[in-house]
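Annual report, structural modelling task.

Input specification for the 6-O-phosphoryl inosine monophosphate complex:
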Amino acid sequence: MANVILVGAQWGDEGKGKIIDVLTEKSEIVVRTQGGNNAGHTVYLGKDKYVLHLIPSGILRKDKVCVIANGVVLDPVGLVKELDGLSALGVSVTPSNLQISETAHVVFPWHRELDGAREVKKGNDRIGTTKRGIGPTYGDKAARVGFRMIDLIHRERFPVKLRERLIENNEVIESLGGTPLNYETVLAEYTIAADRLRPFVTNTVVYLYEATRRGANILFEGAQGTFLDLDHGTYPYVTSSNTTSGGACTGSGVPPNRMDRVMGVLKAYTTRVGEGPLPSENSEISDMLHGMGREFGATTGRARRCGWFDAVATRHATMVNGIDELAITNVDGLDTLKTLRVCVAYKVDGRVLRHMPNDCEVLARCEPIWEVFPGWETPTDQITSWGDLPVNCRHYLLSISQMTGARLTITSVGPAREQTMFL
Ligand code: GDP
Ligand code: IMO
Ligand code: MG
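The model returned the following structure:
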């Protein structure tokens, strides 16, 4: 399978977890390279549902190695909870199947406090973050005042550095009207987590270098989606990491010339959770999907905003990620519709735009120009081969792939492994 970077080609929650789980069958190593426990990747094994936040979705397959690489921001207490949750479900996670980078940055309670406080202060201009402290942690990383895993597990250095940083952050928390954090409490909580995680922490760059030298198949698991990318997304309504394919290299230390392919995962329609422009948003499709009990966030439980497929956006995603192949998920969500709409261009200020504007205020005013497709009005969730899909369904999927500008290779018609077709 070679080394594949898998990215979300929309606003996150495209079904990356499910596709990663399917593709892991043919890979040896699965690597998370950015983001933190703002991600929620859902995988079903039979009737059992697993929601992974920090641990790569490859963990559910035996004999695979998962790596949390340097580009991730890691909440150690959250990770220990996730490990315990998996253990309760019978999934064994040990240092032989999970490795954590020494240089991944650590999320602290003050990061979460500041994340929440900044959102309140922004009022109507809030981003709608997951409040997991992601932005402030990456902020400290860029400001060169962060803690890395290597600092967390260092028995002498950690208590000293913690006191220093806590004093400074408490001043900020108090200035925002919050309650200062207690040193002893944070120290105790983080020391327990550090003791649990110490055996997993290693030099993952060297491990991945050696793996590439012996020709191991590596899958790079993207979190979030293209339009939440710090550089290429709908700034400022984005997350604080590079969610696009380049982030997989800086976030893992595996260089670009060792990557073979980029796979973009997208839904057959569009969703977004949180604030910010969403040109193809539509209440008809939103109400329909929510009525089916679908499209509620895996991390925060918030209802996702829904819209028709936006081909202007996905074409942009192909451009910035270099997407070679597409996996289109949630096709079954459209099964009952008589007709479907696809946004093929935007109209704003009397002009027609074929590319996404960089100015978020302009994007927010863009009106979609639609192309209408006939629906298939047939359940697809039991179909197991491409040729058996209704002709209108195949026509729709091939058309949106062509507009997106990459080859369709995987179609998904349900959350389970078996509900996946390879073209
Ligand atoms: P991720 O963040 O990209 O991994 O996606 P999430 O797990 O947050 O959200 C995707 C949701 O769609 C999850 O509930 C998946 O179980 C579900 N899902 C994935 N593919 C399909 C599909 O083809 N059909 C249906 N019905 N659900 C799917
Ligand atoms: P997965 O990996 C969907 C969104 C938040 C908010 C913005 C910034 O499951 O696809 P943050 O907490 O990162 O500072 O929030 O980004 N967001 C996601 N939306 N899926 C995700 O991850 C997301 N991770 C962050 O809702 O709008
Ligand atoms: Mg998700």
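The two ends are 15 Å apart (CA to CA).
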